[in-house]
Each structure stands twice: as C-alpha cells, then as structure tokens.
Amino acid sequence: MKLLKVFGIFAVLMMTVALSSCVKNDDSEDLDKKWQDWVKQVDTEIKASVGTYEGKLYTKSNESTEAENKLDSIPATWRINNDSTLDLLNVPVELLVKKMPESQKTLHDAVCNAPNVDIHVKMAYSYYYHSPLVMYVYPQYVTFPIEYEGASHRVKIYFRSTETASNSLAQYMMKDNTGYVHKSMVELYPESLYMDDKVQTQFYAEAYLVWLGAKKEVQ
Predict the structure, then answer these.
(1) What is the C-alpha separation between 162 and 74, in angstroms, rounded?
(2) Helices (H), the chain
C-alpha cells in the first residue's frame, strides 16, 4: 500500500513537471512568434524608408527658444539608401560652424566661403523600435579646401555619432493613425573643426541640425 502511494505521488510530480514544461514551451514559442513578427515589421519599414526626402533643415541651439529654433530653417533634401547609409545633400557649411568663437571670426568667414557639402552617414538599425524606426548614425567627416591668410588649407568637420551624443540619430515613420506618411527625421551634432589636421575648435554640442520632411514620391 505504501508502495502504491509512493508511485502515486511520483506520477503526480511527473505530470506537474510535464505540464509545466508544456506551458514554458508554449510561452517560449509565443515569444518567438512575437519576436519574428516584430523583426518582419522592422524589415518592412527598413525597405519602405529607402528614397529621397524633402523638407526643412533647422539649425538649433541649446540657448535658443523653441520659437526661435523653428524660424531658423531652410529647404532641404536628403536620401536614405538601401545599403544602411543616408546622404544629407547640399548642406551650407555656414550652418555647421555657427558656434565658432568670435576670436576665430576670420577663420569662420573663410570656412563659410566654401561651397555646400553632402554629409554621408553610415547607419545601424535598431530592432528594439519600430513605428518609428530608429537608426543609430555614424556621420563621416566632411572635408574641403579654403583660402585663409593668403594660403590654401584643408578643413575637416567632424560630427558626433549616436555613441557620443544619444540624440544624434535618425527616425523613419512609415504610417501613423492618419495612414501612410513616410516621414523622416535626422539630428546631427557638429563636433570639431580641423585645419591641416590640427584641431581649431570644439563645438561641445552647443548647436545642432535637424532635418524634418517626407518622402518625395508621396508628397
């Protein structure tokens, strides 16, 4: 009789373990399915984001009011490519050096005489977000020649990546509650200016640039 009780208890324990295992497997499968659906949605948005965008380029300052920031803008065009990069096109150099100190006015003016530049940005997509899709950005420096104090020089302007400035990133919104909108936002922080490979000024994230607009094909 005692032996039967022991076997009975053992059977109950085995059934409990088996049921528990089934529940865990079901939960795991459910989580896997949700993650797969999530990844598919992110991949869909990545593909949908490719294209040319038109909108406004805003230059903002930590010292300016929101109203002042909204007024300081120009028309802008940028392109999200299908190779995890984006290109910010025809950007006036003077917007990149707005926070150069007054003591460097002569250098500032020489830099501002340079033609507009394209900023090439490498990206890494975050699979933790969608709607909007979040892209971590790694801007490449821009370089161009200038004439300064009677001689030719080469200038490089570097930018902060997402790793050094958390707000330096890009976003894409495929649709919202009004339907498909295909909107894009890019935010970049100029970091430093070099001339002939020697640092001339650090910007310390005092001013930054924001591109806001929609895909050209759907405007």
Answers:
(1) 24
(2) 2-49, 66-71, 105-112
Q: Which residues on neighbouring strands pair with residue 119, listed in sequence order?
A: 88
Q: Are strands 198-202 and 207-215 parallel, antiparallel or unpaired?
A: unpaired
Spatial contact of 13 and 21, defined as CB atoms under 8 Å apart: no
Please, are residues 42 and 135 in contact by the beta-carbon 8 Å criterion?
A: no
- H helices of 87-163, where? 105-112
On whether the pTM is more than 0.90, the answer is no
Q: What Å distances lie between residue 49 and 60, 93, 175, CA to CA?
A: 25, 27, 11
Q: Per-residue b/e over 127-157, b at no fewer than 16 CB within 10 Å?
A: eeebebbbbbbbbeebeeebebeeeebebbb
- Is-contact 88 58, C-beta < 8 A? no
Tens digits of per-residue pLDDT, 78-110?
Answer: 999 999 999 999 999 999 998 899 999 999 999
Distance CA 127, CA 133 (A): 8
Residue 142 has pLDDT above 60, yes or no: yes
How many Cα atoms within 13 Å fall on the side-chain side of residue 139?
A: 28
State the pairing for strand pair 179-188/142-148. unpaired
| Counts of helices then strands in the chain (DSSP H, E) | 3, 12
The whole-angstrom distance between residue 50's C-alpha and the CA centroid of its chain comes to 14
For 113, counting Cβ atoms within 10 Å of its Cβ (0-12 exposed, 13-18 middle, 19+ buried), the class is exposed
Query: What does the pLDDT read at residue 27?
Result: 67
* Bridge partners, 146 (sequence order): 153
